[in-house]
């Protein structure tokens, strides 16, 4: 992990905790069994809500929170200093989804690494305890929790999150050859946990500019460890994507699935096509007369167009080898081809 901002991790100095729960302050000063890792930049309101939810968790062992900030200028740093957070700052140009998470993990002391997005808000005071309880099974290498759409989320986001993060707990066991299709390798750092010892052996793949979570999930499963999806450890999290933004995002997803060999894995294509048609059918049903109000029908109509655009972007991403470089650079949301 060379380059600006990647010098050896050292313990920084911190301000005295300012939040009200003194017991939580004492708890985090003990030897941590869990390290909660946040990557932050310019999202003060969500960071505040996220940290308040973290320090309101019930029935958990000592933990530490480490934040890697990449150039916040909006007050995020002031929020972080109100909590006993270990803060490390890196230049904005040094940020990289995989490398920065590897840096955060290298700074951690806990046996379990919890990765949480700065805008993911734990939905209950039992979120962390439930997430960690899955490691009672010594064969479990990683866990990820449910993502609930925030109020006001688009129809496309509501349907997508409800499909990827349902109410049923899933145990992905490479030795049992579970038939989960494309969901077998699905994983999200928005709300996840990983054994520190496993991270040390696999790391996040730094050849990936994005979707490093799927990359490490494949490494964990291919090494023979189980991954659990735990719906009882939910967070509120969703983004508002434009139609053009969704096209570019799914172009990158298609490229990444092909690069990692997941597209050619058994059941991937069939299961992805099945869920795509299911979501389209659901939106078409909402368009039927007397089913919804006019504004709901407009939202469903937009969702249909977005689903079609996503499928188109995915297909082009899978076929990117046939496209000229200048076009691939234009179609990529995350600058994969720069």
Overall tally of domains: 2
User: What Rg do the Cα atoms give?
Assistant: 20 Å
Mean pLDDT: 88
Q: DSSP strand (E) fraction? A: 15-25%
Derived structural class: alpha/beta
Q: List low-confidence stretches.
A: 1-7, 10-29
Give the distance, in angstroms, between the N- and C-terminal Cα atoms.
20 Å
CATH architecture of the largest domain: Alpha-Beta Complex
The gross shape turns out to be globular
Q: CATH-wise, what's the superfamily of the largest domain?
A: Spore Coat Polysaccharide Biosynthesis Protein SpsA, Chain A
- What name does the CATH topology of the largest domain carry? Spore Coat Polysaccharide Biosynthesis Protein SpsA, Chain A
Name the helicity range. 40-55%
Number of strand elements: 9
Protein architecture, described:
The chain is an alpha/beta fold and 338 residues long. The chain contains 12 helices and 9 strands. Strands 1, 2, 3, 4, 5, 6, 7, 8 and 9 form a 9-stranded mixed beta sheet that branches. Helix content is 41%, strand content 16%. The longest helix has 25 residues.
Topology (SSEs and partners):
Layout: H1 22-29, E1 34-40, H2 44-54, E2 63-69, H3 76-80, E3 86-89, H4 97-107, E4 112-116, E5 121-122, H5 127-133, E6 140-148, H6 155-164, E7 170-172, E8 191-195, H7 196-202, H8 212-222, E9 226-236, H9 243-259, H10 268-286, H11 294-318, H12 325-331
Parallel strand pairs: 1-2, 1-4, 2-3, 6-9
Antiparallel strand pairs: 4-8, 5-9, 6-8, 7-9
Helix pairs in contact: 9-11, 10-11
Describe this structure in a few short sentences.
The chain is built from 12 helices and 9 strands. It is an alpha/beta fold.
